[in-house]
């Protein structure tokens, strides 16, 4: 299977305007950052590779484990965080000593689509605030170009 980066970006942009809803993954109804990535996966690849477990907004801090990064390594292809491309999944860590707990989908080298509490799904610049928090980047499996 060959997956075009443009198809991933187009799928991510379709989610813009979807309200932020914790643990949801329904286009134009509600999603969180993981739900956005799950929804794009379903559109461009098909069935999700595993079921997301229930999680609280503070799950990463409470458990102290890299659940999000571990799942990304199971299902995506790691790429250098400083060399991500449009269509790649960006993983963010809000504090150096805490597990990664936020995701976005790059739409270019300078922008991403992500679901943010209080703002819903939007396309935003990957400015210094976000760039310094990128922990890892991943390509969807089968991506070309």
Describe this structure in words.
Helices cover 28% and strands 26% of the residues. By secondary structure, the protein is an alpha+beta fold. The strands form 3 sheets. The protein has a 6-stranded antiparallel β-sheet with strand order 4-9-5-6-7-8. A hairpin with a 3-residue loop joins strand 2 (25-26) and strand 3 (30-31). It is globular and about 40 Å long. The protein starts with a strand and ends with a strand.
Q: Main sheet?
A: 6 strands, antiparallel
What is the tally of helical segments? 5
As laid out across the biggest beta sheet, the strand order is: 4-9-5-6-7-8
Relative helix content: 25-40%
Overall pLDDT metric: 92
**Protein structure class:** alpha+beta
Q: How much of the polypeptide forms β-strand, as a percent range?
A: 25-35%
C-alpha termini separation: 13 Å
Shape label: globular
Low-confidence stretches are none
Number of strand segments: 10
Radius of gyration: 14 Å
Tell me the series of helices and strands, N- to C-terminal: EHEEHHHEEEEEHEE
């Amino acid at each position: 299977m060959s997956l075009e980066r443009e198809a991933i970006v187009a799928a991510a942009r379709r989610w813009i305007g979807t309200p932020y809803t914790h643990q949801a993954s329904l286009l134009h109804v509600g999603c969180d950052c993981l739900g956005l990535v799950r929804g794009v996966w379903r559109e461009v690849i098909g069935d999700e590779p595993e079921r997301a477990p229930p999680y609280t907004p503070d799950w990463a801090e409470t458990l102290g484990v890299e659940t999000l990064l571990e799942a990304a390594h199971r299902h995506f292809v790691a790429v250098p965080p400083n060399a991500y491309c449009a269509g790649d999944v960006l993983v963010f860590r809000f504090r150096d000593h805490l597990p990664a707990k936020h995701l976005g989908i790059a739409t270019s080298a300078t922008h991403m689509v992500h679901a943010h509490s209080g703002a819903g799904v939007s396309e935003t610049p990957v400015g210094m605030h976000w760039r310094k928090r990128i922990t890892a980047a991943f390509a969807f499996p089968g991506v070309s170009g």
